[in-house]
Each structure stands twice: as structure tokens, then as C-alpha cells.
Amino acid sequence: MNKPIYVTQPSLPPLEEFIPYLQQIWDNKILTNNGPFHKQLEQALCDYLGVDHLALFANGTIALVTALQALRIRGEVITTPYSFVATSHSLVWNNITPVFVDIDPDTGNLDPERIEESITPATTAILPVHCYGNPCDVERIGKIADTYGLKVIYDAAHAFGVQHKEESLLRHGDLSVLSFHATKVFNTFEGGAIVCPDAKTKQRIDYLKNFGFADEVTVTATGINGKMSEVNAAFGLLQLNGIDKALDRRRQIAANYRHLLHGVKGISFMPEITDTISNGSYMPILVGKDYPLTRDQLYQKLKDHGINGRRYFFPLISDMPMYRGLASANRERLPVARQLANQVICLPIFPDLSDDQLNQIVDRIATIDR
Ligand SMILES: *Cc1c(COP(=O)(O)O)cnc(C)c1O
């Protein structure tokens, strides 16, 4: 059997290229606390992403928890059941009640039509996810937030580098949160960031990620330790050199999958989104009733052949033990999310996936009896 293929594989630059960065850290002995590489990476990411301010974090989850604290979000927050658990967990870590709202089948994102009916006097914010890097309906979500006086924090863990209507998708909402985990399109091993609109908000976020310290003797809040180290920041700078090439290759692979799987009975895709330059972060396919195998049978068959797709996102967050008791987790409220969770397989997509591997994967899906 060939070497197993995973849903993703991090791209790493040649190790020699990282040594000079480490040498610099060894020379100056600054390991963390907003050191020179940390400062450089914040600026480089602002420039690359086309945003004004950004605060680096140790990971995306701590960044989400801190983003909610920075805006003093309380009570209930409207969010999606179709995501990675960290989205809802970040609410619970702040003693906030998640209110699950159904999604739009074309994007996998919160359905703006369903948001208003879930707003109560306790609602303070909306926490949508740009699922697979598909842009949320940012205009309508923004309007609803303005009408009801709510904050909007985007979980943009999938949305690194996505351009929407000729600007960064990360410019929407009050804050956007990125993840630089090993499995994401841009990684710093572990890492994350909050994108914020102004220097004052960034300052407060910087206090919160450093225990609440504003200066040596002033602690402004029960902050956490969410700082990114110099090693991670240096690595991020090196990774940025290759990011355009990596994103191009991902988009090319996504286009190849669409082309080669087109016409396979029972296999479909989410529609491509207009006005958007995607980042090729995920390759979800939907296994329909017309396909000879069930979704789980296809998933298992691929696995038996060393092709490790993932059922992102199954199960729904709202079906997990710590959430399923919530009124908003009621199965009848979330039919679209449930349907998608039962049909989806995310196929392997990463810059080093070869055309040959891609053809193998397509073959396994298109040929029924192997
Ligand atoms: C990866 C991910 C996170 C968590 O980010 P970490 O850096 O792994 O903590 C949060 N939300 C979504 C949607 C993710 O995919």
C-alpha cells in the first residue's frame, strides 16, 4: 500500500533556512514578551493580510477566549453548531451560553435569516465562523448587529488570506480571530491572532494576553498567558515567504478536484462563492443519496486505502455532551447543519499533495467496486 495521505500536511521550509533565525534568538536571549520577531511578525501579517492591527497569540483558542473578554461579552451569544469545538468552548470558558442557529447549506455558515428569531434580551454578540474559508454574509450580519446593538466576533480560523469583494475578509466585524495551528493554511506550529480595528483595542488585548499587565505595577484585568514565543514568531516570518505559492497550489488542487469529480453521480460540492478569492483551506465534498455508498462507507473505504479524509464537521457541536442539553441544541432547530454533517467528507488538500495522489483519491471515489 502507498504511504497514507492525510487530510492535511503542514508545509515546512528547509530546516537550514530556520537556523539563522534561531541563531538570532540565541544571540539576543529574548525568548518571549513582545520580542523583535513578535513585533516583526505582527507588522508583516498586517501588511500581508491587509488589516490595520493584529495581536499574536499562543493559539487560536486562547485568542477566541480573549476576544470575548476584550469586548466584555456576557449572557448569550449566537453561534454555529457546524464548527470545530473551540468555537463554542471559548464561550463556555467565559460563562457565556452558546445559542446555536442553523446554517446556510451553500456556505456552511450561520444563516442570517435565522439569527433574529434567536435574539433575546440576554444576547450580547454573534460569533460566526467563516467555515472552510467561505465568507459569512458579513453585510447582513453587520446590519443585524447594528440593529440590535450586538458585537460581532468572527472565528476566522479557516479564513487566512481570503479576499472578499477586493478586500480582506478579516476587516469585518468588531474582531476576527485567526489560528496558526499546524493544520491551518498558515502555521507557526501553534499560534493565533486577533485582528482588531484600532490601536486602543489592540492595547487592551495585549494587556489581556499578558495576565492583564498594563505596566510593571498595574494589572488591569484577570488576563491569561496567551503570548506567542519568539521561536514561533520567527517561524511565522519564514513561513510568510512561501505563503503565496502555498495558497496558489491549494487553489489549483481544489480546482482539479472539482474538475475531476464533476459528474460522479451522488458527489457534489458547495457552490463556488462569487467575489471571493478563496484560500483552498479545505476540500469538502457531499455524499448524496445517489452515491452507491453511504458517507461513512466511503469515508471508511478511503481510509482502508490509506486516504484519510475527515468528517469536518461531524458530530455537530450541539450534539456533544456538554452542549446537547441546551434548548438551542434541539435537533429540530438545526436541520441544515445536521444534513451537512451527515454528508460531508473533507478530502486531503495541502500544497505538497501531488497530482498523482490526487488522481488516486479521485479514482477511489469515482470507481465503486474497489
Ligand atoms: C483550529 C480552529 C480553532 C482553534 O484554533 P487553535 O489554534 O487550534 O486553538 C478554532 N475555531 C476553528 C473553526 C478552528 O478550525
The H-level CATH homologous superfamily of the largest domain, spelled out, is Type I PLP-dependent aspartate aminotransferase-like (Major domain)
Helical content class? 25-40%
Please state how the strands of the largest beta sheet are arranged side by side. 2-10-9-6-5-3-4
* pLDDT < 50 stretches: none
Largest sheet, in brief, is: 7 strands, mixed
Tertiary shape = globular
Descriptive tags:
Aspartate Aminotransferase, domain 1; single chain; 2 domains; 370 residues; 16% strand; binds pyridoxal-5'-phosphate
Written description of the protein model:
It holds the Pfam family DegT_DnrJ_EryC1. One of its GO terms (molecular function) is dTDP-4-amino-4,6-dideoxy-D-glucose transaminase activity. Keywords: Aminotransferase, Pyridoxal phosphate, Transferase. Its EC number is 2.6.1.33. This is dTDP-4-amino-4,6-dideoxy-D-glucose transaminase. The protein is an alpha/beta fold and 370 residues long. The chain folds into 2 domains: 227 residues, Aspartate Aminotransferase, domain 2 (3-Layer(aba) Sandwich), CATH 3.40.640.10; 123 residues, Aspartate Aminotransferase, domain 1. It has 11 helices and 17 strands. The chain has a 7-stranded mixed beta sheet, with helices on both faces. A 3-stranded antiparallel beta sheet has the order 8-7-14, with no helix packed on it. β5, α5 and β6 form a beta-alpha-beta unit. α2 packs parallel to α7 and α8 packs parallel to α11. The longest helix is centred in the last third of the chain and has 19 residues. The chain is globular and about 70 Å long. The chain starts with a strand and ends with a helix. The model has no long low-confidence stretch (mean pLDDT 97). The site of pyridoxal-5'-phosphate (PLP) has 14 residues, from α3 and α4.
